[in-house]
Amino acid sequence: MTANTRVNLARRSFLKAGVEAGAGLTLGVILPPLAAAQDAAPGLPGSGALVAGRFEPNAFVTIAPDNTVTVISKHLEMGQGVYTGLATLVAEELDADWDQVAVSAAPADASRYNNLFWGPMQGTGGSTAIANSFMQMREAGAAARQMLIAAAAERWSVAAGEITVASGVVRHASSGRSASFGELAEAAARQPVPTEVTVKDPADFRLIGKRVPRKDGSGKIDGSAVFTQDVQLDGMLTSLVAHPPRFGARVNKVDSAAARAVPGVVAVHQIPSGVAVVARDFWSASRGRDALQIDWDESGAVTASSATLMASYRERAQSAGLVARSEGAVDTALEKAANRLDASYEFPYLAHAAMEPMNCVIRLDEQGCEVWNGEQLHTGDQMALAGFLGITPQQVRVNTLFAGGSFGRRANPQSDYLLEAAAIAKASGGKAPVKLVWTREDDMRAGWFRPMYFHSLRAGLDAQGRPVAWQHRIVGQSIGAGTAFESAMVRDGVDSTSVEGASNLPYAIPNVSVELHTTEVGVPVQWWRAVGSTHTAFAVECFIDELAHAAGRDPVEYRLELLGEHPRHSAVLQLAAERAGWGKPLGEGKARGVALHESFNTRVAQVAELSRMPNGGFQIDRVVIAVDCGIAINPDVIRAQMEGGMGYGLSATLESEITIENGAVVEGNFDGYRVLRIGQMPKVEVHIVKSAEPPTGVGEPATPVIAPAVANALFALDGKRARRLPLGVNS
Amino acid sequence: MIGFEINGSAIELDVDPDMPLLWAIRDAAGLTGTKYGCGAALCGACTVHVDGRAVRSCLLAVSSVAGKSVTTIEGVSGGAAAAVKQAWLELEVVQCGYCQSGQIMSAVELLERNPSPDDAQIDSAMRGNICRCATYARIRDAIRLASRSLSGRSEA
To answer: How many angstroms separate the CA atoms of A394 and A314, rounded?
Structure first.
């Protein structure tokens, strides 16, 4: 980033909106329709709005006469701190006082609020929120600042160049005049929109890189923050749905007489996904659902079971798959190698299990449809609902609320729970708003899991222990196939999310082959925090550790020697190793393990420190994390995501597992699907690499690194290689 | 009609006596700070105080609190509550925030009973509260900080 970057806004012109008396200033950025239309693949969500060619202001900043600066977030706040991050970017360039800044959720609108990395689609995922918004939000803040200065210059009849802005106050030093943003808001809104803005030299940042309080902190400690579960509308009814006991089963016959007799139950509807009970509150709906007599048609049900499925995956891995990466001649190199190693790794299905089970509120009205949701795939869901209801996307008004976690789940490629709610609202004749509530069991058994995978790896070492060949075969379901994302995600039969983290192996090995077998099972699968890396990082980082051991080398040194092309990888690895005291003795019954992985352009290294427990199990005492995510916008939010992302990965490392038996999900609640509890949380240290590179995401990249770090530490502890997740608490 | 006290005010609810207290609080009394997470007393998101003791409200029949005093996140107050909330903000504990009402209710009860818990006591008191964002390290630190601020105040 060069000093005082001047941004020519011809490419992204600014527009004002809401220039009404007392309305203050609203600013935003628009994309010229031509450029946007070129990005808009036919049939993809959002293309409709853009084809219409409307110049709608993409408003990100509002300054009200009461001096409140409201930053409009196009992204979902699901805990990752994006409200704070986006507000920081705007407030930095606007020179606002942090306390005057509030954040509100943008409506769903592909033409104004699209994710710049996703073309004409609005959504939050892939750790892109800050990365795609970095310049967009800064430019929005800088333009608003420039208009406030112009308004002040006009009012005071002074040169704009003599005016300064700091902490929400516009000042003309030599005349001693000053005004708040609020006092200038209306006049600023009448100023011409700048065609060019200047963003700050990073040396002048006073918010970026500093610790500022989270914008969503106080509402989340006094119960006032509103999640979808908390939405209460006049006349609203609550619905629970009885889903089939096995994937692929359908309703044959329903006897709903007893359910209808439950006090509070208003209606029972058969819908495509099951049988919905609509009632005045959750308890009535729940009792009503318990009283349903449903005869399920299981003739088309999935018959797969986890154990037999894994055995078949193992078999598939015996043969070559579709090529995701190929360099050199792996077979020949393996044959000639001085030493050969092989290992296989197994991964179960995983549920996201966000604390807030899936839910949403839908109201059908004369204008179309209004939705309340922790909305992660704004315009995808908008399009799906419009299609289902036979209305235009613009008639689907989306209110985005805080999500009680998501980890990818609320960005469902088939809009599953939203369409279920819409079906209920439609079946109810649209008479009342309907809140669909899933119980924990509904949420856990609905599927959309991180797929089950089998990995088979072979490597050849030369006489000096250097790797000369690396063959990596992956077997499992595709997340993208059959979705609107297929064309973007699947190339020549290879779903990039099945192989990411493996196909971009950073280690310099002359002969590399990464292959994929895609399976079809009928168990719905979806992206789960860090997606492909949740399994590829484990396989790659455990196997490279095995190679280092076979070569008789230190695992950190061995990796560093193979990372010549990747200085940022090397730097995070070195930082984590140094801060963890790598190489220093730990004492009896203790050991360290290391892992390094890049996902979403962010590099993370972790060192886990383990102790053997008297009962034969182990305890994770400390985890040292180093991260390179470019410019650190909010260091404390980054630390929080590193801690929490690691902790989320630790659940899957130790205990979490979804088991399929004859097409049904065995686990239903947190007794069977066990997740990390406080006593299992290690001490965590986070070290952020100082960087001037553009920011990259932090929501996901910490998650996949902990499992291999722990497994490698376990090997260092007792010489046994763990090749299946979860490891189990008493490994 | 089931009568009890909620956050210091008397309330009478005309609900099924078997309705779990959680849904009586949320759907009948309209206080939504207390969350549904599992419905099986496994996650702690629904934690409230009944006569000062932390309980999981998702399995407890509302009839069993007749005549008792219920405190939710909206009404929790006193020295320990203030210290916990302050520490939660100072250490930026929250992420998604959905479990935090329950976490705070458990932490407040712990410090009311034991103002100076050690790490094992903190882990034991908080083990019933799941946080999928894994804010656990900060929860532990915040309880320690709240404990220190409570003892500082009593010494002052």
So the answer is: 48
